[in-house]
Amino acid sequence: MSNFEVLLVAGMMVVTFGVRYPVLALVSKLALPPVILDALKFIPPAVLTAIIVPAVLMPQGALDFGVDNAYLVAAVAAALLAWRSKNLLLTIVGGMAIFLAWRWLL
Amino acid sequence: MMGGSRSQWAEFGRGAKATFPLVVGAVPFGIIFGAVAVNSGLSPWATAALSLFVFAGASQFVAAGLVAGGAGLLVIVLTTFVVNLRHSLYAVSLAPYVKQLPQRWLLPLGFTLTDETFLIAEQRYRAPDNSPDKHWHQAGSAAFMYLNWQLCTWIGIVAGSALPNPGGWGLDFALVVTFIGMLFPGLRSRPFVASALAAGAAAVLLGSLPNRLGLLAATLIGVAAGMLVERATRGASRERAPAHTTARSPAPEGDAP
Lengths: 106, 257
Known about the structure:
The structure holds 2 protein chains of 2 kinds. Chain A has 5 helices and no strands. In chain A, helix 4 runs antiparallel to helix 5. By secondary structure, chain B is an all-alpha fold. In chain B, helix 1 packs antiparallel against helix 7, helix 1 runs parallel beside helix 8 and helix 1 runs antiparallel to helix 9. The longest helix of chain B is centred in the N-terminal third of the chain and has 34 residues. Chains A and B meet through helix 1, helix 2, helix 3, helix 4 and helix 5 of A and helix 1, helix 2, helix 3, helix 4 and helix 5 of B.
């Protein structure tokens, strides 16, 4: 590894570990106000959707609502699978299969 | 932790088993990361080291793209910090459940706290039973995700060294579909749906903010939307209900500003 790579890995490790472990270890020693605890439960749906939606609607960087956008078509199908089946494995495998098939057909 | 009892190892095994669908989604994502990284100018050892020591898929992916674009060290590390800030929110959520644990538990549980393991662990911690060994469930989930991520990175490194343009396969969709599967069970009521809708719309509108700050801003907007809708619904149901009936919220005064 080059010096740049050693520093890159070390830097990324420090900031990633730094947002995980200290919070996990220290936060419970402090009493959190109820409003924070109230807010926490909304973090998973908010963060997941904020990652999903741009990736699906803007796979090339611009908004794309066309049926030739395989990301959009497969994401809608996967969302239907997730909602109706409530089965995580089926959603992931089914969504991936629809995505690959749609790209192959186009 | 090696000296665990049979029931503790059973909890560990159930944690790994519950994580299996998410591991399936991580397989193509890990392979594509390894393949893209070695084609972005990173050496195979640096690529493997990122998975071993950082272990945060989305940020590793972003970093590989920045290396390919010739970005400097400071920009890459700062972007990693922003992309991974959501993990601190996960840590805040789990902290009350692990506060009795010694450091030899907190260090590895902190190091391996990903989106996937947070989802599985949080469900287990919230379960109504009083098992004292729920952290073994999280450990099983984390161990399975970690080992699988290393293996898939290696497969990707080998494949990416042999094949040109791996990013064109579109396997980055694996992350999206995994997150869709993780999102839906969490949409338990109207405030959660509002939170997701607001965050998704904000992420599109704020997508051009530098350093992927849009992700962080959209998350906060989504959280605020969820809290607002929850308060509005709670307020409406209180007005309808006669004053002497039991409040539906466990902390009826807690939402006063």
